[in-house]
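Researcher: Checking consistency across runs. Here is ABC transporter permease again:
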Amino acid sequence: MRFFLRRAIFYVFTAWAAITINFFLPRFMKGDPISAYLAKNQGKVSPEAIESLRILFGLNTDRSLWQQYLDYWGLLLRGDLGRSLSKGLAPVTDIIAEALPWTIGIVGIATVISFIVGTSIGTYIGWRRGSKAEFVVPVATFLSTVPYFWLGLIMIAVFSTTLRWFPASHAYDKIYIPEFSWDFIGNVIYHGTLPALTIVITSLGGWILGMRNMMITVLDEDYITVAQAKGLSPRRVAVNYAARNAVLPQLSSFALSLGFIVGGTLIMEMIFSYPGVGLRLFEATLAKDYPLMQGIFLVITLSVLVANIIADIAYAALDPRTRQEEAL
C-alpha cells in the first residue's frame, strides 16, 4: 500500500503540474488566438463579436489570470477543452475524438507488432549469442537510425509510385463512408500498411538491441546456472527464467511507447496525409489555433501519465523487489 500510495501522490502532482503548465504556456506566448483570427479576418468581425470571442476563450481582460485559471479548471472538470478557431469554432473535444481512433489504430498496432517481434528476436539472439543470428542487430540498428521522413518517402517511391502496391496517402478511398463493414475496414488496412510498416521498421532495432543486451546480462546470473544444473530444458530456461526477467525493462519502455501513441507520429501523418492527432497538431500550429494545441498537448500528457501508471503496476506485479524497495 505504501508503494502504491507514493506513486499515486507523485502522479497526482505531475498531472496538476502538467495541466497548470498547459494553461500558462500559451498565455506567455506572443499574441493570442483571437489576435491571430482577427489578422486573417480584418474588417469582417464586429467589436461585439470580438468581445464575445474573448469571453468564449477565457481571454477577457475583465478577469484576472488567477480567475482565468480557475475557470480553466472548471471547464476541464466538465470535459470542455474549448473551441477551435481553425475548425469553425468546433469543440476541441470533438476534433480530438475524431482524430484519436486513426492515430491509436495505426500507431498502436504498429507499436505492439514492433514490440512483440523485436522482443522475440532479441530473446533468441541473446540466448544464441555469438551465432550467425547476430547480423540482425547491426542491420536493425542501422534502420532505426534512418530519418523517419526519408524512409517514409522511400516507401512511397518504391511501393506506391513504382510498384503501385499500396496508396501513398489518406486513411481510405474517398468513395467510402466510414462505417463498420468489411469493405471499409479492408480499405483502411490497405491504406495503413505503408505507414505501419514504416513505424515497425524504424522502431524494431531498439526493441531487438534492448532485449538482446538484457538477455546477455541475465544469462550471467546465478539462478540461470542453477536452473541449467537442475537439468531443465533450454527452452524452459530461456523463456521462464531468462526472458521473464530480461523483459522487465522492456515493459517500462513499452508502456511509455503506448503513452506516446496518442501523440501519434507527426512526421508519418504529414508524409502520408493521415488524419490523426499528429496532423491535427501540425495544422493547429500553422493556424496558431491555441485551444486545439492546448487540448492535444493535454491529452498527450495525460496519456503518458496513464501509461506510466500501468507500467509501474505491471513492473511491481512482475518484480516484487520493486514494491519492497520503495516501501522501505
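Researcher: Does this match what you'd expect to see?
Model: One thing to look at in this run: The domain at 100-327 is CATH 1.10.3720.10 (MetI-like fold).
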